[in-house]
Structure formats: structure tokens, C-alpha cells
Please model this.
Amino acid sequence: MTAVRPKWQEPPRPVTSFAKAVTVVVVLALVTVPFLVVVSTSLADPRDVVANGGWVIWPERPSLAAYREILNGGIVGRATLVSLAVTIVGTALSLTCTVLLAYALSRPGVYGGKPLMLLVLFTFLFPPGIIPAYLVVKETGLLNAYAALIAPVLVNTFNLVVMRGFFQSLPSELYEAARLDGASEWKMLWRITIPLSRAVLAVIGLFYAVSYWNSWFHALLYLDDPAKWPLQLVLRTYVLAGGQLADPSAGEAGLMSAPQTVQMAVVVLATIPIVLVYPFLQRFFVRGVLAGAIKT
Amino acid sequence: MTQLSRRAVLLGATAAAVSSAVGACGDGSPGSVGNAGAEKVPWPTYVPFAGPPADLPGTAEGVQPGYTVYPQNLVSASKAKPGDGSKVRAVAVTYGTPPTPKEQNKLWQAINDALGIDLELTLIPDADFDAKMATLTAGDDLPDIISIGGGHRLPREQDFVLAKCADLSDFLAGDKVKAYPNLANLPAYAWQGMGRVKGRLYGIPLERPLPGWGMFINRDAFTSVGANDQSWSKDDFATAVKALSKNKQYGMGANKGNQFGIRQFHLGAFGSPNDWKLDGGKFVKAETLPEFKAALGFARDLFAAGAYYPDTMSISTVDMKTYFYNGTLKSMTDGLAAFAPAVTSVKGAYAVDLALPFKGGSAAPTIMAGSGVFGYTVLKKASPERVQMLLRVLDFLAAPFGTKEYELTHFGVEGTHFTRAADGTPKPTELWKAGENVTNFPIGYLAEAPRVLFFSGVDPDSVKRLHKWETLAVPRAVKNPAVGLVSDTSNRNGVAINKALNDGINAIVTGREPMDAWEGVVKKWRESGGDKIAEEFAKEYAG
Amino acid sequence: MVKEVPSTKARRWRRDRILLAFVLPGLLYYLVFQYGAMFGSSLAFLDYVPFLGLKDSRWVGLDNFERLLGDADFWRATLNTVEISLLQLVFFFPAPLALAMLLHSIMHVRIKRFVQSVVYLPHFISWVIVVALFHQMLGATGVLNGLLADGGLHTVQILGNPDAFKPMLVAQVIWKDTGWGTIIFLAALMQVDEQLYEASAIDGAGPWRRFWHVTLPGIRTVVVLLLVLRLGEILSVGFEQILLQRDSVGAKAGEIIDTFVYYRGVQAGDFGYAAAAGLFKGVVGAILVYAANKISHRLGESGVYQ
Model:
């Protein structure tokens, strides 16, 4: 499928086409090769990884040992469940609160709408610092609770503004007609706004889900017990900061473990959900991102 | 075996700071003091446990007793269950893998059962200990038992201990400790290494043997390049580690936290004092002396020659060990406690040994003595009855080698975690090897008996090697005169002040800064509080 | 007339009751976690000792700020922050524009879609993973150095090298967000009037001249707007990204204001002082963002505030 080249445009010169093709391939390689190395290393035989100094481009002798090691009842399995739960619950709560607030703020002339909007927008100017945010979590008694991973980031102001902007762009005639029919605000939200906003809801839901899935700093700050940590923090602590994921004295006799295979297996595990969800939501990106964000 | 003390008994720079941490307590107001002028309670009376005779005897100087065979008749070190069945929350550092949850963990269950408490142990990875303890102590809901060790310090540790922790003097000072016979078996140097707070006892020390660190070597590899550590010069040493650095393997192993092993190994080779030198009542920092600079320059040359692992600055202790085990690194500098796990993990692929220091300068080579403690354990303020109950729990955990309690806290449950060989030696089971062990459930960080050399399931020759090394090295050990002394400046800003030194060392060894940048680093250290720390140590020493 | 006002208000209130119920959870969030935290910034005026709490910690007035202004480490962190921001402005900012032009010029729709799918992906990958990927590729024992060593060439120290730290940060941002950044530029490119190109081509303008005289003016407003907004955020550079890597190069090269706050506050326990640094950044940042928005309004754009 090729778009039609407009008549005014001269046919591309071979050199240009070639250069363009090369650039595209290079760009694609820059993005994909690191993933390839990671997946390969995670699947390689530990001995090959050790012999090659910590990585392989292609697993000559594929082995699932690293995955078995991390999923064998240890912290990685638990952390994956924590991450999934926080992501699902957090996204649901965030999306609900954001839709409700955005809807209310999008209705013209709503009581207290203007000061409320200012209240919201001011946080753009002055986001809370690390230390004060920590203090609030401490004072609200959320330290060490999973709620500390959700409550302090429940509504993202940017997402709220985007959503409100989108809701405002819906034709007001629809609402007026509905009101004449005696529909309540609840009904209008449910019957008019939401069905017309699927793209923006999908994208903002994705934004929330990705940020919950990828978050680790809040867990580091608010959860003392590593047994409660989500996957990304486990990844950060046991891969980047070099804690121990698997006991080196364990494992088969004579098999020298290569930490890199295990580490890369965790990286793969933490990436998989993103890659799985991504294709389904991709078609909404452009519409969702541009809606209301910046009107040119 | 327990894989205690990763950074082992504290790095040079932090040793004084940590070991004196409890001691360095003031009331939090400006101008607070340590122990100078305060009325001091006596140290707990030392009542040694009459244990099984060692076949490799220890010495008063600090060589640990070694056992190549396991004692035949174990005694019981406690009469009744120490606990009252209540829930006890504790927090400690870990270098292991997170343990399986209590519900599935038979080791945890067995220890809980023997202690008679419901222990909830929160284990914080070494890498996050500073951040986590800072926030944990900020919370209102403190655990009952807090273990502070491994080179870490809490912010305002002195304020914290005084404000929130139980004063143990009335239970432990002098002869009172005899009510807890296993705590009475902790040697005086451990208590002194921990120190007092405003003259009073607030903690239980976690004892460590005198030689704090060593350079672990792959003996086979070093022999293969003709190196002999019985009498080697710095050139012999350099030639050997350079020869071992090829094909993505490296002669020198270190990690991002131990400054290329300089403080732990090279310093002794160049005849430097251990962290501080006591010079006629004045304290002089090792870093300000020419010996230190010589050791620094030596490490820098080795790094430039490619003898160090190139990614040293981004690998953790755990990574370093793993690379040592799998043959990527031919040596590493680490705490002595890393010996047994190393022997086990290497699985006989090569002989793990410790190297004697080479002769770096004109002075006779030495080794750096540890502070005698890994850290210490404090208790949250509570009723005297509860404090006594917790002390009984800690007393149980400190039961010495040769007791049934020691067996449980070090080898687990017979039939589950170990089986007994014909000679009585506990042999680890698959469950233990797969991770249900005291590396991953490091109960010993709450309290532990004085350490002896006995490694279950390990080639007895390796015990002999380590004992032989200790016999040769311990007489050369140099102590840190600042251990147990107090400096308010060090307590408030010691971490930041010493970090500048470490940053300087890292920059110079890796070649990012020229050698002559060192003077500037030292100058900055002096100005940012180093000189003040030295003065405060001198005052405390005199008072 | 005067009488009607309260009744209108009352009616509005009745009408909007349900809407106000909608508002409640969100409002509560903003009051507690955003405004509560703003209130919590008062920590900056205390010698806050965590285990003593807000009540028992000593009020020290502006002491923390005085210390801050005289603290060379803080200024170095500020300088690092600004340097990294400017580097990003120069090297990262144009990258999505260039990629967008490339994508825009691809005629084959399927190829274009495929390339887009691939280049958007890194945006969704966490910083932890991005840093792990970079380490695996460019670390001292990573792929690049492994290949160099196998080829008998000199290895290069990229990670853990303070001199390379800032460029490397920018490279990571480019890798992660260039693709995502193309969305806005692509939309802008689509909106450039087709007829202008045609007219220009008929006048004999080649591709370069058309780019210069049609494309650039057509997307100018978007570019300027984004640029101004970015300038407003000059004190904010990726906190998580840098926190993950600062230790490998030390504070001199790697400290930014946010990590300064983290290390001083959370790690070293000097909460009041760290909060002061955070507040300083917050106030200056607020002024900059506000100014940037004013400027963008001047430039005839709507900014993010409408």
C-alpha cells in the first residue's frame, strides 16, 4: 500500500531513496538490537555468557535455566504479582477519578469550576517535592502499605487536562438534547461522553498503566519490606544495584552461574507486559495524544 | 554457612565511624558530647563458654579457633524457651536472596518455635540499607529489634538511639550480664568496639574476628603464573596479576564500594596505619600520609594496565563474588567471612586461599585489623519485662559453637536442612542449598556467638588454609586507634566527608583525575570536617 | 435582579450536586497529596529530625536556605542540571523533528506504520530497563567493548566515566523518546497546506527550498511552543534516570538538584535541608514555567493552561 505521490513532487532520486532506506534501517536497529541482546543473553547457556564476558548476540545453546531460577518461588515471582495488582487496581482507580473530575470540570458553568480548575493547574507550576511528599505519606499512615504506590499519584494533572480538553470538544448539542430528555449527569457521562471518548480513555489508561508498571521510586521510598516490592524495584535493586537474586552456591554442581543470564531474564520479564499491551493500543496514540494537549 | 559481612568488618574509612556509632551519642542539641565526662557503666563481665577443644587452637592475639571435626556431644545453652509467644518485629541487613515467606519456610518456623516468639524479620538489601533505614526510623512504628551493621550508619544515629531505644545498662552492665550467659561469652573487644552512649549500654555487639579482610585468591591461578605470596614484592605482585589479566579475565577484583581494595589490602602492603594513626595524642588520618598515596598510585597503575576488572565501578559485592567464583576474577578483596561461601560456591574448581600482603615499601607489610564488630543490635523502648524477654531471645541466638542452639541457628533442622555425616558433621541438604539457609535468612545479624573456624560440607583443608593464613597474618595486624571513640562531626557528616575521599580514590585509580589531584582531595577532606574529626577523637581519647 | 443571585446560586448548587460528587475523590487527592505536600514544604524551615516529628523538631527559620546558598555541592548540582537541560535542548530537541521529517517522507504506508510502531516503543520502557539495556550494550563489559576487544581495538569507557556522563544521559533520552516525540511534529507536518507546496514547486523550488520556505514556517509555531515550554522546565531533568546512574560517576558529574534532595534528605537524613533545596527548585521552577507560558501566550499559542 503506497500513498500517491503528489504531482508537484519530483520523483525521488535513487541516492535519496537509498540514504533514506539506510537511515530507517539504522534507526530500527538502534531500537531493536539492545532488546535482541537482552533476550539472547537471558536464553543463553550460562557458560557461554561467562566465556563471552557477559553477553551474547545469539544463544547458541538455548536454555530456560535463568527463567526457571527467577520464577522458582522467589522474590521475582512475588514482585511480578505485586506489579500486576498495583497496575490493574491503580489504573482503574486513576482512570475513574480522572474521568469523573475531568467530566465535572468540562461542564460549562459548573459550580466552583473555575477555582477548582485553578487549584488543579497550580500543581503544574508547583509539583510536590520528594521530601514533602514523603512526609504526607507518612502522616496519612500509608507507609508500608501498597496504597502508598497509588494514592500519591492518583490523578495526573496532565492526563486530567487532556481528558477535560477532549470532553469539552464534544458537541454540546448532544448534551442539550439529552438534558431535554431528562437525562442525569451520570447518564450523560455514561451514555454520551464515554462512548465518544474511547480513544482518549484508552490512551490515558495506557499512560496510567505504564506509569504504574514502570514505577519503582515510590516503592523504594515508601515500602520498607522488600517482600512487598514491585518488579521494577526488584529489577533496580537486584540488577542495577547488584543485589543477589539467586544463590550462587545453589544450582547444579559444576555449573557456574552467570549473573547476567538471570538479570537479563528479569529485564525481559519486566518488558513483556508492555510489549503485549502495546499493539492493541497503538492505533489510539495519535488521536489520544493530540486531543486537547496542545491545540495549534 | 553464613555469608556474613559482605563489606565485612567495615571499610577502613567507615570503621571508626561505625564502630563508634553507638558511642557517639549526644542529646541532639548542638555541642553534644559522647562519653567524655559522662558517668560510665562497666562493660559486661566476660564469662567464656567452656566449649569443645579446638584442633587448630586460637590465640589471644586473635587467631580464631579452628575445627576440622564437628563436636560429638552438643550441650544445651538455654533451659526454657526464651520467648513469651508474642509477635516480635525485627529488621536487619541482608546480602542474600529474599527468603521464602514464613508460611513456607521451615527454617524460619523452626527458629520461631525454638525462640518461642512469632518473629517477623524484615530484611533490607545492602544496596538500599541507608535509604530504607533513614525512612524506617522516621516512621512511628519501629520494629522491636533493629540491627545496624555492615558499614551502614543511620542519620543522627546518636539522637535516634537515645530517643527511641532501650537503655540496656541495667540488664547487662558488669555482672548483670551473667543472667544472659551467651551474651556474657561475647569478648570485651566486641563490647568496646561497639562503644557506649553517654556512658551507657544500648546495644548488643555483633562480634567479628580481628583480621577483618583479606585478599582472596584463586590459588591455582596464582601458582600457574609462578606467584608466591610467602615473600613477594610489589613487582612480583604486579607481574602476577597482570599475567592473570587476559581473555576477559582479570587478576584484580574489587567492587564499587571497596575502593579497589586499597584500604583492605594494599595499605598494609605499604605499611600504612589503619585508618588513623595515634601520634603523641594527635590523630592523623591514613589518607594524609605518603604510604596511602603510594598504595593509591600502585592501584592506579594496575588499573591502567588492565589488571582490575574494567567495570569495577559499577559492580556490587555480589557481582564481584560471582565473578570470582566463576573464574572471571582471579582475586577479590572481601571480609574474611566470605571465605566459607567462596569455598562452597567454587565447588572445588580451584583452591580458594588468602594472600599474604606483599612488601610495598621499606616497612614490613601488615594487615588491617577489623574493629571487632560487624555492627550491633538495639531494642525499641519497652517495658522491662519485654526488654528482658528480647534479651533472652538474643541470648539464645548468641549460643556458642558446640551447642544445640548454635546448630539450629547455623545449620537448621536435622533431616530438613542438614543430615549428619558419620563423624557427626552437618551436611547441607538440597533444601538448604536451594536457598532456605542462613544466608537468605540471616538471623545471625540479630545476635551471634563469637566466630570460630568451622565450615560444614567444606573440604577440611580449606579450614587449615584459612587458619594458617590467620596464624601468619594476625601477628602483623595493625589496629585502628579510633575504634570506639566518638566524634560529633563524624556522626553528623561523617558519611559525606568520607565520601569525598572515596570519590577521589575512585577518580584517581580509574585515571579520570591525575595522581596529583590527591592533595586537593585530602585538603578538601580536612576543610570539610576531617581535621575537626581528628580533634574530636583526640579529645575523646584524652578524656 | 439582586435578589436573584442567591437563588441562581442555589439552583446551580442543586443542579451541580452530582457533579460535585464526581469531583470529590479527585479533589481530595489534590488537597491531601498535592496541597498537603506544599504545606509539608514547611519542613524547609525546620531542623527536622524524623523520629521527633514535625511538632518536636526545632524551627530554624531561614538557616537551611542560608546553608544552601553557601553550599558548593548544591550549586554544582544546579549547574549540572542546567547543563544537562541545555545539552538536551541542543541534541535531543531536534531529534524528533528530524525523525518526523523522515517518517513523513516515507510514502509506503505499511513501512511507515511499522517504523512508527518500533520507534514509539522505547517510550513505554521503564528507566530501570533502559539503563540496564545501555549497560549491557555500552558498559565496560558490554557488547560494544566486547566487540572492540575481540577486534583487537582499544576499549572505551562510556558508562562510569564522568566526562561521558552527560552526553550519555542525552543519548539515553534520544533513544527512549525520539520516536514518541515525532507524534506532535508529524501532526504539524500533516497540517501544512498541500497547496503551498504545490505553488512553491510550480515556482521551481526544489526540495530544500520547499523545506525552508514552506515546511519550516508551517510548523514554526509548534516548534517554538515546545521549545519555550521546555525552557520553562530547565530545572527538571530525568530524576529517575539520573538517580539510577549517579553512583557510577559520583556526585561531581552526576548530581542534579533532585538527586541532591534525595541523597541529602532520604539517605543522609538531613530532611529539613533537603526540603529547602527542593523548595528552592520548586519556586524557581514555578517562576520559569509561568514565564514560559506567558511567553507562549504572547506568541499566540494557547499553552497548556487552556
User: Anything to note?
Assistant: The radius of gyration of chain C is 25 Å.
